[in-house]
Write a structure and sequence with these properties.
Radius of gyration: 18 Å
Order of helices and strands: EEHEHEEEEEEHEEH
Number of helices: 4
Strand content: 25-35%
Helix content: 10-25%
Shape: globular
Oligomer: single chain
Distance between the termini: 27 Å
Largest sheet: 9 strands, mixed
């Protein structure tokens, strides 16, 4: 069972581990975050949303880790969905990328659309088609070949962070899909962790916020590369 950070009658906040799908794909995988949570809280099955992913208001990539909120009721689903659509949800990610970024902070605004050739997401210059996507970053650590970042997304496109930094010439460490042969991959997994999640509670309207520490295998990788994560 995935670690539960917070739960009440309306929502469940969990820490998704790397390697676990949020919900089944077209292959109909049996072991997913949703499957585990529905056993724990069967009411999720009628919380609203698409039939194959009830209660799911946002996602994390399979090999990413970190904080997610799942709705247990239709009211929670609609309220949280509205917050995500209005971009009032607070989300932060710890991300390690290859190479040395030129500035201490910046914004990436490539548009994103699915490639007709490869099927993966592709970044395009803003205004040249695709869905508008904004990713902000702040450098929190450096070494000669890596840059550690705190990342904020202003939109929630599929593979947004991975696609943006790949297009920027600094792929996310451990990414096996958006990668360049220029960089050697010795990471244990994708270095992308959702470390902060904040939103208004669906019933009380009170702002609640959760933080998640970097998983141990990522901490050890930073030590190996002589870097340190900052909270």
């Amino acid at each position: 069972m995935v670690p539960i950070v917070f739960e009440d009658a309306e929502i469940i906040v969990v820490e998704k581990p790397s390697g676990l799908l949020v919900h089944p794909s077209v292959q109909n995988e049996p072991d997913t975050l949703l499957a585990q949570l529905t056993v724990h809280a069967p009411e999720i099955a009628t919380a609203g949303g698409e039939e194959h992913r009830p209660g799911i208001v946002h996602r994390l990539d399979k090999f990413a880790s970190g904080l997610m909120v799942v709705a247990k009721t239709p009211h929670a689903f609609s309220t949280l969905k509205e917050q995500f659509q209005n971009h009032t949800i607070q989300k932060r990610y710890v991300v390690l990328v290859y190479g040395s970024l030129p500035r201490e902070e910046g914004t990436l605004n490539f548009s994103i659309e699915r490639s007709k050739r490869s099927g993966r997401m592709a970044a395009k210059p803003a205004g040249s088609g695709g869905k508008e996507s904004i990713t902000e970053y702040l450098v929190t650590g450096r070494s000669p070949y890596y840059t550690l970042l705190l990342v904020k997304t202003g939109s929630g496109r599929t593979h947004q962070i991975r696609t943006h930094f790949f297009a920027f010439g600094h792929p996310v460490v451990g990414d096996t899909l958006y990668r360049s042969d220029h960089w050697t991959n010795d990471a244990p997994r994708l270095f992308l962790h959702a470390c902060l999640l904040g939103f208004e509670h669906p019933t009380t309207g009170k702002h609640i916020e959760f933080k998640s520490e970097l998983p141990e295998e990522l901490k050890q990788y930073l030590e190996k590369k002589h870097l340190q994560a900052h909270s």
